[in-house]
């Protein structure tokens, strides 16, 4: 998914230690015009920049496509990250400049590695009446951020763990292991808990974790979280407890603290203002000339691409 903010901020993000049970409230971000769908964004924000290498968390829906127009994101670029697409309902068509053409469906992971540069488009399919899911980004560490772009798809099995349903799409949890390649140690799982159920999970104490509540209400890390909220638990614990106050579905995200600074602006992850400005210049040249470069050869199906927002006239000063 693209970040369609007209004036995106440049962010220097750090992975600083935080108190237990930090509650991160979402902010609403419209993706496009007045009828376009909106997302609830919980990362990044001033209180928390990362959870492991997870650096961007958008949660959307359930949205009636007839009212919002669904997802209609034309070709746009990425650098220095991996995108993680996860749906609860609906279907999205993905097309990118590596030649990958795939569909995002509920319970199936689509992971795109931008590396040195990639461009892709995302459109909800004609048969989709309701769209509901999450779009997440993973920052690539310094030694891997210029890796070759690529795409992976994985449909994890649904398993029962002490009365909870679980799908592990990245990393390992409760005996389930995802084969999908990441560049730092990570965890990603969907967990559904019936009302009143408590689940205690053995976790890696080197990981920090985040619980993104999709629906219902859950008590975790000493706090109660409702739908749309992300709860951060820092590294150091070998157990994560989840108690559902109502029928609850959530995403559990985790990873070793990245320990690096990054600069995020629009759809780019880099390490400096000048680097981001160069990515922007290259994208504008490639999209207008239709000549392949950093972002690859554009598919013939792309009649439109998304122009990059203007950089301010003064040098941007990143914030933590």
From TrEMBL:
Fe cation binds at residues 76, 78, 120, 122. Its cofactor is Fe cation. Residues 1-22 are annotated as: Disordered. Pfam families: Pirin, Pirin_C. Residues 39-138 form the Pirin N-terminal domain. Residues 189-287 form the Pirin C-terminal domain. Binds 1 Fe cation per subunit. This is Pirin.
